[in-house]
Amino acid sequence: MGSSINYPGFVSKPNQRATSNPFFQRESVPGTQGTAKSKLSLALQIQKDGNNDCDDGNDKSDQEEQESDSEYSSCDEKNEESLRDYKPGGYHPAFRGETYNEGRYVVVRKLGWGHFSTVWLAKDTVTNAHVAMKIVRSDKVYTEAALDEIKLLRQVSAPVRSTEGLYDSSKHILSLLDSFNHNGPNGKHVVMVFEVLGENLLALIKKYEHRGIPVMYVKQIAKQLLLGLDYMHRKCGVIHTDIKPENVLMDVGDVEAIVRMVEVLDKKKRDQKRSQRRATKTSMDLPTSSNSFSRGSASASLERSSSDRRIRRHTIITGSQPLPSPISSTNFFEMKAQMMGNSLPRPTACSSRSNANLSGGDDEQVANSLSSLELTTTADERPEDETQREHDIIQIKIADLGNACWYDEHYTNSIQTREYRSPEVLLGCQWGCSADIWSAACLIFELLTGDFLFEPDEGHSYSKDDDHIAQIIELLGEIPARLLSTGRHARTFFNSRGQLRNISKLKFWPLKDVLMEKYRFAAEDAHTISDFLMPMLRLDPQERADAGGMANHPWLSDTVGLEGVVLNERKLYQSGADVPGWSQEVTGHPRH
Ligand SMILES: Nc1ncnc2c1ncn2[C@@H]1O[C@H](COP(=O)(O)OP(=O)(O)OP(=O)(O)O)[C@@H](O)[C@H]1O
After folding, report:
1. Both 204 and 182 in a single domain?
2. pLDDT for 55 beyond 80
3. Strands in 139-202 per DSSP E
4. Quick count: other Cβ atoms within 10 Å of Cβ 492?
5. CATH number of the domain bearing residue 154
6. Measured between alpha carbons, how far is 54 from 88 in angstroms, rounded to an integer?
7. pLDDT > 90 in the chain, percent
8. For the segment 541-553, what is each residue's pLDDT rounded down to a tens digit?
9. Which of 5, 15, 80, 117 to probe ligand 1 with, by most ligand atoms within 8 A of CB?
10. Where in the sequence does UniProt note compositional bias of the Basic and acidic residues kind (predicted)?
11. Is residue 191 located within the same domain as residue 203?
12. Which of 25-34, 161-170, 321-330 bottoms out in mean pLDDT, i.e. has the lowest?
């Protein structure tokens, strides 16, 4: 479900980021902003109104404590869900070994969390494979939202009739495998079961330190994203409404091999810690010397360790551990190096590595499985050398349909996370599938540069929305008259002469120039990228180019792994005006 939409009472996840605005900064002093009610804002209100009535004294079992001892399961509580939300109507206190759906699924570790749910890696005992289990908060509002999400997920996960020779774009959307209810101390929770994926695109952006990821990866992501959106819009009649890096997840490749690697390393860490503890205990049991300093430090360490233990025993929050993706590899290489022995050199695409440091058994098995991931490991080594990575392939999937809606049933007009929000939504005009295309273009720009395309701020005399609209005009030109005359909020921002009320000085800076002057793209590249992004940033949503047509753009023709993929039924640069619900909610049209 969407996490960063600026609804009233909404608090961003701590790991969300701020990057530099590609445009000049206006003065920044708090202003005011309009708000809108939605089913999501209602849910967030409930969250805000809640008291801190959770049981802080909730002891963990020995098994859980053992789990927390592991480095890979360590919990930085600041980056996790709030303990306050473990209460009736809130999150379910899941734990390793807990079973779901009459014993079918067994919890292994936590993968992540959102404002609506916690997400857990679980073993499916029927298929003997791992799955991602999303356990939704139990309050009625979350439950209803989850039931809507399941309907949308079923629509996009429905098996596609195989049409020979045609590309199956549905594989770029996260599939729902199962759903059921689970009763726990905090109520009845909807649980959704998905295929397991790895980190999101924000992890990849961060890995490249917000300097932009290599163009060959951007092309792969862009093409898959567009193919996925084309499928969602044209074949399913579904609008995502919250396309952003956090909601696009990367495939990890061989999930089972990576899970085994993580498990083996966790066990190693636990064993190490246990023997360290034993050693400390033995040294403390020994008769102490007359040196008061050493007595003091022993008792200090005793106090420290018992207070650590107390802290652990008083929390029910588990640390999130997304499976490491070879390509984003925030910690993949560290883990792999430990797996192989610390002295191992960094792997290369063609290296036949020595596994001399492996101790056999589990490690050996995992090493064998990991060798299948070898080809994708070069990304981390030579980010500057794209030619070396011609075999690396990123697979992405669009996830989190928690804010999605139907082309003929919009649940709210408060859609899209701020930086990815389209002009029609800001102005209160009609909107439709094309709003996702705007967000997709913002996302692709961010992948290329590491910066948000639009990062509005508020100032003395203008709101964030004023600044957002001004930035859009500076980049793309005047807002079309049709939007000014139909937008419910247009008069808030514009006077009767069509001028911005609160901002007078604009600095026009076309996209191509931004790419060349700020991001140092060569003129030819800046021209091609601008030619690719501009049709998706058309200000009038009716005229915006559709996803399928843009997947055919020449810039994407050499996309690794997708070279021959062309959607013949869609024309390059053509607007999606023929797609039902393209730029407004459809009424009286039979649903797909
Ligand atoms: N299929 C999956 N495989 C691996 N990890 C996943 C999967 N689905 C979700 N996650 C992890 O769980 C996190 C929360 O998932 P999701 O965004 O769907 O939950 P949410 O409660 O709807 O969140 P929010 O509304 O705050 O965005 C994700 O950011 C991701 O780290």
Report:
1. no
2. no
3. 176-184, 187-194
4. 17
5. 3.30.200.20
6. 9
7. 58
8. 999 999 999 999 9
9. 117
10. 75-87
11. no
12. 25-34
Q: Which atom of ligand 1 is nearest to the CA of 117?
A: 21
Task: Give the pocket of ligand 1 (CB within 6 Å).
Answer: 1-3, 111-117, 119, 132, 134, 174, 194, 196-197, 200, 322, 399-400, 402
For residue 451, list its beta bridge partners: none
Distance CA 498, CA 112 (A): 46
How many Å lie between the centroid of ligand 1 and the Cα of residue 214? 25
Range of the domain at 443: 197-268+392-583
Question: Ligand 1, residues 12, 39, 113: which to mutate, most atoms within 8 A of Cβ?
Answer: 113
Q: Rounded to whole angstroms, how far apart are CA atoms 95 and 116? A: 18
- Note whether 118 and 201 are same-domain residues: no
Is residue 433 in some structural domain? yes
Q: Is 269 labelled a binding residue? A: no
Rounded to whole angstroms, the Cα distance separating 586 from 582 reads 9
Answer yes or no: do 131 and 262 share one domain.
Answer: no
Cα of 551 from ligand 1 centre, angstroms: 26
pLDDT of res. 94: 96
Q: 591: which 2 tokens?
A: 């649903």
* E strand or H helix that includes residue 182: strand 176-184
Between the alpha carbon of residue 297 and those of residues 98, 288, 308, the distances in Å are 40, 11, 16
| pLDDT over threshold 50, residue 21 | no
Q: Looking at the structure, do residues 88 and 216 belong to the same domain, yes or no?
A: no
For residue 326, which of 365, 381, 274 has the smallest C-alpha distance? Answer: 381
Q: Which of 5, 244, 249, 414 to mutate to test the pocket of ligand 1 (most atoms within 8 A of CB)?
A: 249
Of the candidates 471, 464, 419, 502, the one whose C-alpha atom is nearest the C-alpha of residue 31 is 464
Looking at ligand 1, which atom is closest to the CA of residue 116? 21
> Looking up tokens 């939007």, which residue turns up?
483
Same-domain check for residues 568 and 432: yes
Which is the closest atom of ligand 1 to the Cα of 246? 29
How much distance in Å is there from the Cα of 119 to the middle of ligand 1?
6
For the CA of 119, the nearest atom of ligand 1? 12
Q: What is the pLDDT of residues 205-263, one digit of tens each?
A: 999 999 999 999 999 999 999 999 999 999 999 999 999 999 999 998 889 988 888 88
CA distances from 220 to 172, 261, 312, 330, 392 (A): 12, 27, 43, 20, 10
pTM of the full structure:
0.78
Tell which residue, 378, 401, 445, 114, has the closest CA to residue 248.
Answer: 401
Q: Give the separation between CA 404 and CA 529, rounded to whole angstroms.
A: 28
Q: How far is the CA of 115 from the centre of ligand 1 (A)?
A: 9
Active site residues: 242
Domain count within the chain: 2
CA dist., res. 408 & res. 233, Å (int): 12
> In sequence order, what are the residues at sequence separation of 6 or more whose Cβ sits closer than 8 angstroms to the Cβ of residue 481?
498
Is residue 499 domain-shared with residue 566, that is, in the same domain? Answer: yes
**Same domain? 241 vs 100:** no
